């Protein structure tokens, strides 16, 4: 019989006061067996005994047969051809003359499997030596770049010993970005760990996975130059790089909330770098004995030194300048000075920038464009050609796509026509558009502006040509008596 707490309390109190079991049972109208069970406090009515009943038919021989079926499955290692509980039951009946029920075998199979199975959530606590390893990973975040809502890729790196972090954002997660991000990470940490832990992304792995992964050729060359070994995780095993997995979410919640609004990606990366430095100086990881900064100082001394030669992380291509003085690189066009027309150039695509070289000399630099069908112009590249062909200035793409509408409207109103407009563009190239527009605002509205008038503002003399000296000039007094004595001069 199961009793309530009130009845249990009455039994215990009466019994401890010396009342007999018979008297308690009679007065409370319950059986003597119930009083005897609870009177001494050897159990409690809220405690339920676990039901355990050993199956008489599932003996040691039957269990051994079930385990032998498991071992057969492990030896064959075929996911789709394994013993089910029903198949084991059928074999027991046919081979061992088993007379028990199927449900007893099904229960036995379930219990024996549970004893042999390690839960997938289980993790082993790991420990790393200073300078031993770094974990890296990619994440995603949304920001506003120059007012446009843009999805970016966050690269996260974390030293395994000190938990020092490195976070930067990029427009793409391609190979050149992947290598450049690691290169900047090593610069930030001041050295290179001996091992790098990453997943099986195609940007790093050519084929295979885990310990069988084959890295991409350029990544293999990069790791050889920086002298670190590659350790790729198994598929869908985030626990193998849990330190950086946590960093991806941490950086997004703490560094990118509220959603940043910046002029360009370089400005955002500078802020992220400052956030990483602040993390190093102020943060302490839970369950760690010392703050990040103290452990980083210890680890930094044990990192391998950076190589003297800086590895070229770019994706390099050879291209020919077309008749519009542009170069095509990955479905987008970029301008170069017109003097390189129809010449071969080298294009180096980095994570966020693009450099164009001719015979080893850099001739143009742009912010790298992703997508397709975009063309980036630089007015400076076309100014010489515009001076030769001023009639094209009103419809020239390098003019219309690089200058503000305010300056274009003002230039079209100049009395000298297209030639005067080209002269104004030359001043924009030499002094910058912002300065020319500032001069425009200084010219009185009733006056007809000219380029010569703009030049006078650019060459304004100093406010005053007078050089002011101190009112009092200190003079050192010289004693001439020794001179007089030497040359026989007598004082009058």
From TrEMBL:
Residues 126-313 form the Integrase catalytic domain. GO terms for molecular function: DNA binding; DNA strand exchange activity. One of its GO terms (biological process) is DNA integration. Belongs to the transposase IS21/IS408/IS1162 family. This is Transposase. It comes from Desulfitobacterium chlororespirans DSM 11544.
């Amino acid at each position: 019989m199961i009793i309530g707490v009130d009845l249990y309390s009455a039994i215990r109190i009466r019994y401890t006061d010396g009342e007999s079991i018979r008297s308690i049972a009679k007065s409370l109208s319950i059986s003597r067996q119930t009083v005897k069970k609870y009177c001494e406090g050897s159990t409690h009515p809220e405690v339920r005994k676990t039901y355990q009943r050993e199956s008489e038919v599932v003996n040691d021989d039957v269990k051994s047969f079930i385990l032998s079926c498991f071992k057969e499955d492990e030896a064959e290692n075929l996911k789709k051809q394994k013993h089910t509980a029903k198949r084991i039951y059928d074999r027991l009946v046919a081979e061992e003359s088993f007379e028990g029920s199927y449900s007893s075998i099904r229960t036995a199979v379930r219990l024996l499997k549970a004893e042999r199975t390690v839960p997938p959530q289980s993790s082993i606590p790991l420990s790393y030596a200073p300078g031993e390893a770094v974990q890296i990973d990619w994440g995603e975040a949304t920001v506003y770049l120059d007012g446009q809502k843009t999805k970016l890729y966050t690269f996260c790196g974390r030293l395994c010993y000190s938990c020092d972090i490195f976070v930067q954002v990029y427009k793409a997660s391609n190979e050149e970005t992947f290598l450049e991000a690691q290169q900047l990470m090593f610069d930030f940490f001041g050295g290179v760990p001996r091992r790098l832990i990453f997943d099986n992304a195609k940007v790093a792995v050519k084929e295979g996975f885990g310990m069988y992964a084959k890295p991409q050729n350029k990544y293999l060359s990069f790791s050889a130059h920086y002298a670190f070994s590659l350790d790729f995780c198994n598929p869908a095993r985030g626990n193998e790089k849990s330190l950086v997995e946590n960093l991806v979410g941490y950086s997004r919640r703490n560094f990118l909330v509220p959603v940043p609004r910046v002029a360009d990606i370089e400005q955002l990366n500078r802020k992220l770098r400052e956030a990483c430095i602040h993390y190093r100086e102020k943060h302490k990881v839970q369950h760690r004995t010392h703050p990040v900064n103290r452990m980083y100082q210890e680890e930094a001394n044990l990192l391998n030194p950076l190589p003297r030669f800086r590895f070229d992380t770019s994706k390099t291509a050879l291209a020919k300048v077309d008749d519009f003085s542009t170069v095509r690189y990955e479905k987008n066009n970029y301008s170069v000075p017109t003097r390189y027309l129809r010449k071969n150039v080298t294009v180096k695509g980095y994570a966020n920038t693009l450099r164009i070289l001719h015979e080893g000399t850099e001739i143009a630099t742009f912010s790298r464009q992703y997508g397709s069908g975009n063309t980036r112009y630089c007015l400076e590249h076309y100014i010489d050609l515009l001076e030769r062909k001023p009639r094209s200035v009103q419809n020239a793409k390098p003019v219309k796509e690089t200058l503000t509408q305010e300056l274009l409207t003002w230039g079209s109103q100049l009395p000298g026509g297209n030639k005067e407009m080209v002269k104004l563009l030359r001043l924009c190239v030499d002094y910058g558009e912002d300065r020319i527009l500032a001069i425009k605002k200084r010219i009185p509205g009733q006056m007809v502006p000219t380029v010569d008038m703009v030049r006078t503002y650019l060459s304004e003399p100093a406010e005053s040509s007078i050089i002011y000296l101190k009112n009092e000039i200190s003079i050192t007094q010289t004693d001439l008596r020794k001179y007089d004595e030497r040359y026989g001069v007598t004082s009058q």
